[in-house]
Write a structure and sequence with these properties.
- By secondary structure, the protein is an alpha/beta fold.
- The protein folds into 3 domains: 2-264, 3-Layer(aba) Sandwich (Rossmann fold); 282-389, Four Helix Bundle (Hemerythrin (Met), subunit A); 399-493, no CATH class.
- The protein is 48% helix and 15% strand.
- It is built from 17 helices and 16 strands.
- It has helices spanning 36-54, 70-79, 83-100, 116-128, 157-164, 202-214, 228-243, 275-281, 284-292, 304-322, 335-347, 352-371, 377-389, 408-411, 415-434, 441-460, 464-476, and strands spanning 2-5, 10-13, 20-25, 58-63, 132-135, 138-141, 178-183, 198-200, 218-224, 249-255, 258-260, 263-264, 300-301, 399-404, 480-484, 487-493.
- The strands form 5 sheets. The protein has a 4-stranded parallel beta sheet with strand order 4-3-9-10, with helices on both faces. The protein has a 4-stranded antiparallel beta sheet with strand order 5-6-7-8.
- Helix 10 crosses helix 12.
- The two termini are 39 Å apart.
């Protein structure tokens, strides 16, 4: 197995330190709900972790929550809620979102606010060794003490200074020195320390958590490419200085960033699509196929048409598992060959696009063999297994959809009767049906069709407000409605 190591810039043979792979993935700052850019990173590393386990490795995984920083403090102030309340709410929603995307749970989810003693221990150790210095109640790391600072970003200190455009502060010895402990400000949460009341800086928390839960050297450290500098560079500086130059990470892995148009998707830019918004339109399988259809190191652009194509692909895979198999000829499907090919492409730096392509090759082979009367059940079992390695559910489709087209009968229907039926009966029936395993898709489709029909008749009668009310009620249930000259297409996730 080979992994592209950001530190060396080369593909390297994967040789973990022991029987257990130690894996750390940088988590979110929970100041608001998770977006699909977050999903890109966590789906990629979920597939990597699932594959390592598929190959027989034991994996111990850690992912942090940065539950105290300037962003959370500012957002809580704007919303008029406590920092703890805001962080707790968004952390809980994040876990729900990841569950909905079939991202398997990490072993440990430490929080910055719960790791302050370990953080203080490391900061004090770096001060004692001369790698850090107190100033004005804060503590800064001396980057000039390291000859190899910048080795992950492959830049010199001078190059980073020019790129960062940082003006020297009153407290810093050097403009590139970074804060590990921040002096308390009035009204902000703080903890006691040898340097006075304060709180952790951003970079130190990941060093503290990885050292505490995984030891002095990690096998894999993952995150987005936007974290290479300064976050991961500073993690290396802190951790290796504290442990006496022991390698902090063997394999640095960084995923490409998700873009919406020309910009990366981020909360600071305001150009985000939340995980919940994406799941309202597309199944978790479709989102995973869209993301894993691009190599984890490459950038990806969020395009609705690409998600629609991924949804169709997910349906093809599901149908291949649901299709009947012949009871006739046996043993024709070569499961061993497909399994070995899957391992070959995934061993090459987790090449999920080729792994997905292999799954679609399998279903084309299914169709040929079934037409010739062969039993494909062994192939279907392999498809479930390999799809599961990529985190695909491949169970019954999560989406139901339909297209409304006006007919002569609809055009002659009574608007008042239709509107009354919709408001009094249909909305509750639709909403309860979407959340009940005892109501068939066909029954839900019938109710939705009546609601869409009523909306059409109201618009035809120029009663636009009432028609818009129906649309809003349906969209509040997660329904996507698209009007065109040919009618109204709709879809909703069950």
């Amino acid at each position: 197995m080979k992994i592209t190591n950001t530190l060396s810039g080369q593909k390297e043979e994967f040789i973990p330190q022991g029987d257990e792979v130690k894996m750390y993935v940088c988590g979110i700052t929970p100041q608001s709900e998770a977006h699909i850019g977050h999903a890109m990173s966590y789906i990629n590393f979920d597939a990597i972790r699932r594959y390592l386990k598929f190959r027989g490795y034991k994996v111990k995984s850690v992912q942090n929550f940065t539950d105290i920083d300037d962003k959370i403090i500012n957002k809580a102030t704007v919303l008029g809620v406590s920092i703890t309340e805001l962080a707790e709410k968004n952390m809980a929603e994040f876990m729900k979102d990841m569950d909905s995307l079939n991202v398997s749970r990490m072993d440990i989810y430490p929080r910055a606010t719960q790791e302050v003693p370990k953080i203080i221990e490391i900061v004090q150790g770096l001060v004692d060794k001369g790698f850090a210095y107190p100033a004005g109640g804060s503590v800064y790391f001396r980057v000039t003490k390291l000859e190899d600072y910048g080795k992950l970003a492959h830049r010199t200190l001078d190059q980073m200074m020019a790129g960062a455009r940082i003006e020297p502060g009153d407290e810093k010895e050097n403009p590139m020195d970074f804060v590990m402990w921040k002096a308390a400000k009035p009204g902000e949460p703080s903890w006691g320390s040898p340097w006075g009341q304060g709180r952790p800086g951003w970079h130190i928390e990941c060093s503290a958590m990885s050292l505490k839960y995984l030891g002095e050297t990690l096998d894999i450290h993952g995150g987005g490419q936007d974290l290479i500098f300064p976050h991961h560079e500073n993690e290396i500086a802190q951790s290796e200085s504290f442990t006496g130059k022991k390698p902090f990470v063997k394999y640095w892995m960084h995923n490409g960033l998700l873009r919406l148009g020309e910009e990366k998707m981020s909360k600071s830019l305001g150009n985000i699509i939340s995980v919940k918004q994406a799941l309202a339109k597309y199944s978790s399988d479709a989102i995973r196929i869209f993301i894993l259809g691009s190599h984890y190191r490459n950038p990806l652009t969020y395009i609705p048409e690409a998600l629609e194509a991924a949804e169709k692909g997910a349906d093809r895979l599901r149908q291949a598992l649901e299709s009947s198999t012949s009871d006739g000829k046996k043993g024709e499907f070569d499961s061993t060959s497909y399994r070995l090919r899957f391992i070959e492409v995934m061993d090459d730096d987790f090449n999920t696009p080729q792994a997905l392509a292999l799954l679609f090759d399998m279903i084309r082979e299914f169709n040929r063999l079934r037409d010739e009367g062969y039993d494909i059940s062994s192939g279907q079992e392999l498809l479930k297994e390999l799809g599961g390695v990529l985190g695909l559910n491949l169970s019954k489709s999560e989406m139901i959809s339909g297209v409304f087209k006006p007919t002569p009968d609809i055009l002659s229907a009574s608007i008042s009767e239709a509107r009354t039926a919709t408001l009094e009966n249909l909305f509750p029936e639709i909403e309860s049906g979407l959340h009940s395993a005892n109501v068939s898709d066909d029954e839900i489709k019938k109710h939705i069709s009546r609601a869409i029909t009523t909306r059409y008749l109201l618009r035809k009668d120029r009663q636009y407000k009432q028609a818009d009310d129906i649309r809003k009620r349906l969209e509040a249930m997660g329904m996507v409605i698209e009007d065109s000259a040919n009618g109204t297409a709709w879809k909703v996730k069950r």
